[in-house]
Design brief:
About 55% of the residues lie in helices and about 10% in strands. The chain folds into two domains: about 10-185, Rossmann fold (3-Layer(aba) Sandwich), CATH 3.40.50.720; about 195-324, no CATH class. Helix 5 (about 85-95) links the parallel strand 4 and strand 5 (about 105). By secondary structure, the chain is an alpha/beta fold. Helix 1 (about 10-15) packs across helix 8 (about 160-175) and helix 11 (about 225-230) crosses helix 17. It has helices at about 10-15, 25-40, 55-60, 65-75, 85-95, 110-115, 135-145, 160-175, 185-200, 205-220, 225-230, 235-250, 255-270, 270-285, 290-295, 300-310, 315-324; strands at about 20-25, 45, 65, 75-80, 105, 125-130, 150-155, 180-185. The radius of gyration is 22 Å and the shape is globular. It has an eight-stranded mixed β-sheet, sandwiched between helices. NADP nicotinamide-adenine-dinucleotide phosphate binds near residues 29, 79, 81, 83 and 129. NADP nicotinamide-adenine-dinucleotide phosphate binds near residues 23 and 52.
């Protein structure tokens, strides 16, 4: 945000939050650090020595230090780095620097819910999980649109001030009002979020889209046409579902689409899918997924990037870029 852009003055948030240590300067970390600063809060960025993000944070005008130093000096500590690093980093660089007057802010529930991180009980531990990536957290703040919503939860309320701190943090990053803040628990958010992204929003959806795309292209339909049919219009359908419900969406599409959906949809997404969804839920619930995530090594993460390519194809990616 340049100096001419409208700034919000939330000095009460700044007073309540004190010095904010944003740990990580990636998707959420960048947005949260910028929003906090534009709201008048004092911000320091904590990153491991040798982090690629150090220069980016410095170029954005932030003071950057190690995770340990940032934690030791701050009143509010924001876990804005990848969940799979929380357990190791908490044990090696955070835990020993904590003191009761500090507040730990999580952006997702997994680490607390599955006890990968166990903070002392005499400090505030809160969660504000934005319903969108960092780029959206930042954009809606800059535009002043207040479109972002979030789940919130309190794990520890050491001195009866955790809610005040949570609301101050939410306000300072631009998430304001009862219609935007949904109360939950760390456990429910972790379970729901992991399940939702694995089975429906990301894992399930991309498999469905790509299976539809390759079925059409293998039948001789051009990549462009196949993409336009199985992916391009998806946001319009989702938007109808969000506005009017599933039934309302069906009331607004053609008879052919309605009739065909009823005939084919349940045969495709059958009871077997639900059974496998339950198995995925149980794996998450048991903590097995969180433990696996937390044990990921840099070598495994490199393989993960390669494996992700198997979920798509060059033809699909080309079409997506063309119409994106
Ligand atoms: N992204 C989303 O859409 C989203 C939405 C809601 C909630 N969340 C939650 O927000 C949190 C952050 O997620 P994210 O997606 O924003 O993460 P991210 O973009 O993957 O975070 C990357 C940043 O963290 C730094 N980093 C890596 N290891 C670190 C460590 N041990 N200590 C401190 N910094 C470290 C990276 O530095 P290098 O450049 O050196 O790698 C980079 O600056 C997670 O709890 C996530 O579940 C994310």
């Amino acid at each position: 945000m340049n100096a001419k852009t409208k700034l919000r003055t939330t000095s009460s948030s700044a007073t309540t939050l004190g010095l904010c240590a944003v740990l990580g300067f990636g998707s959420q970390g960048t947005a949260i650090a910028l929003n906090l600063r534009d709201s008048g809060c004092e911000v320091i960025i904590g990153l491991p020595t040798g982090s690629k993000s150090r220069r980016k944070a410095q170029r954005a005008g932030f003071s950057v230090t190690t995770v340990s130093r940032a934690v030791a000096g701050a009143q509010t500590i924001i876990f804005a780095f990848p969940d799979h690093c929380h357990q190791r980093t908490f044990a090696s660089a955070i835990e020993q620097h904590l003191h009761p007057k500090q507040t730990l802010v999580f952006l997702h529930g997994t680490s607390i819910s599955f006890s990968l991180v166990t903070p002392p009980t005499d400090m505030d531990v809160i969660m504000l999980a934005p319903h969108g990536p960092g780029i959206s957290v930042r954009e809606q703040f800059v535009n002043g649109k207040n479109e972002m919503s979030a789940f919130w939860a309190i794990k520890n309320d050491a001195r009866g001030k955790a809610k005040k701190r949570l609301l101050a943090f939410a306000k300072a990053i631009g998430i304001v009002g009862q219609k935007k803040l949904f109360e939950t628990t760390f456990d429910d958010e972790a379970l729901g979020d992991l399940f939702g992204e694995q089975t429906v929003l990301c894992g399930g959806l991309t498999e469905l889209i790509h299976a539809g795309f390759t079925t059409l292209t293998e039948a001789g339909i051009s990549s462009d046409n196949a993409y336009l049919e199985v992916c391009y219009q998806l946001d319009l359908i989702v938007s109808l579902i969000k506005r009017f419900g599933i039934e309302g969406m069906y009331q607004r599409i053609s008879v052919a689409a309605k009739y065909g959906s009823l005939k084919t949809g349940p045969k495709l997404i059958d009871a077997g899918v639900k059974k496998r969804m339950k198995a995925a839920l149980n794996e998450i619930k048991s903590g097995a997924f969180a433990r696996e995530l937390s044990a990921l090594t840099p070598a495994q993460l490199k393989i993960l990037d390669k494996d992700l390519k198997k979920l798509t194809s060059p033809e699909f990616e080309k079409a997506a870029k063309k119409f994106g």
